[in-house]
Amino acid sequence: MRTLMVDGGPDSIRDLTDTLRAALLDDAAAVLPVGPAERVDDMRPDLPAEPGTAVVLRTSGSTGAPKGVLLSAGALIASAEATHRRLGGPGGWLLAMPAHHIAGVQVIVRSVLAGTPPGVLPGGGFTGDRFVAAAADVLGMSGPRYTALVPTQLTRLLAEGGAALSALRSFDAVLVGGAATAPATLARARDAGVAVVTTYGMTETAGGCVYDGVPLDGVQVRLTGQGLIDLGGPTLAHGYRLAPAETAAAFGGGWFHTADLGSLVHGRLEVLGRADDIINTGGEKVSPGAVERVLVAHPAVSEACVVGVPDAEWGHRVTAAVVAAPGTDPAELASVVRVELGPHAVPRPIRLVPELPLRGPGKIDRTAVTALLAAPIDR
Fold first, then answer.
1. What is the C-alpha to C-alpha distance for residues 6 and 168, in angstroms, rounded to an integer?
2. Which pTM does this prediction carry?
3. SS3 238
4. Is the torsion defined by CA of 356, 359, 363, 369 positive or negative?
5. Is 303 within 8 Å of 323 (Cβ atoms)?
6. The predicted structure's pLDDT at residue 379
7. How far apart are CA 233 and CA 217, in angstroms?
8. Crossing angle for the helix pair 330-341 and 288-296, to the nearest 10 degrees
């Protein structure tokens, strides 16, 4: 197994592209892409990769416990080809996310299959002008032009407007995933002429496998009796690195068993949140996802994260960190939640923050949010 350090610069992306092409198309050795701050020893790169593995991606998931997800060439290619069929055919791609995570890897895989070099937004911070400069080469290509973003990046480009929004509008599809996107943000993007497509998936499914609630070709979705989402089909990983027990538990029966709650209406999937995030407060069960949806529906709120904080009286207290317009009154937001969901679901406190802490490719760091909300407020 070959370990490849990926710092986001053009040279490292070119090396990763060449290595991925060989692993996908030439049956070369499996590759383990790692970011500058990531450990590699826990993935045991000195040992051979499991049979059938083209790429190993190190992911902490939601629990913080590191795992190495085993992805075959077939799974990665199936995902990339299904994406192109859904979006309108192979085209040029702009890489705007870390290339050692699945979203970035898939941008490169799609580029390899399309026969076009990916455009690269180099490391150093995400800004509108850097996005415009990086997008220029891709937007100059013939055929469809695509990119993939996390919700925070989409929000920043919409807020900046001008040349950044113009460049964003020029893409034939803008995939948005890695975290839930506020409905108001999606509506704003679509009203502005951005061809945004929401995606749901994870490293274990070779990236997004459900687009705008509809599974990609070949992808299967079912709900368990507890309302948990199971995913199946040709895009599934075949296990975890050196972890047969975890592999058997997560991938039993040919399905990947997520910890996400969902609903299916006329074949369209709605993700309701993680089952292990449910907050038990004073004997009442509160879904953080439900509270977050109420909060972000408020016109002043752009992002929200709801977590449970230990409480001596209630067991856990519902709390929220919210990114909102200046002057927003937390008491007003609490009132909206009380009306929609009842008094037990009202966060105490609702703390206004300039931005939510993130981990990986734009996922909200719920552990950091919990620490923030558990800390006393400076007076």
1. 26
2. 0.85
3. coil
4. negative
5. yes
6. 38
7. 9
8. 120
Cβ proximity of 176 and 185 under 8 Å? no
Instruction: Dig out the tokens for 221 from the structure.
Output: 């979705």
What is the rounded (10 degree) CA torsion for 324, 329, 331, 336?
-50
The two tokens of residue 295 are 């909060």
Give the chain's domains with CATH numbers.
2-270 (3.40.50.12780), 278-374 (3.30.300.30)
Q: What is the pLDDT of residues 20-50, one digit of tens each?
A: 999 999 989 999 999 887 888 889 999 999 9
Identify which of 105, 38, 71 has the alpha carbon closest to the alpha carbon of residue 237. 71
Question: What are the distances in angstroms from CA 325 to CA 11, 164, 241, 355, 362?
Answer: 40, 21, 44, 11, 21
Tens of pLDDT, residues 284-326:
889 898 899 899 889 999 889 999 999 888 889 999 999 999 9
How many angstroms separate the CA atoms of 168 and 189, rounded? 10
Torsion sign over Cα 77, 83, 87, 91 = negative
Maximum C-alpha span of the chain: 63
Take residue 207 and report the two structure tokens written for it.
Answer: 């990236």
* Conformation bin of residue 277: beta by default, left when phi > 0, alpha when psi is -120 to 50: alpha
Q: Which two tokens stand for residue 158?
A: 């919409």
The CA–CA distances, whole Å, from 334 to 114, 188, 277, 305 equal 49, 24, 20, 14
State how far the Cα of 95 lies from the Cα of 99, in Å rounded to an integer.
8
- Cα–Cα dist 182/361, whole Å: 17
Give the integer Cα–Cα distance in Å for 257 and 253: 10
**Residue 312 has what DSSP assignment?**
T
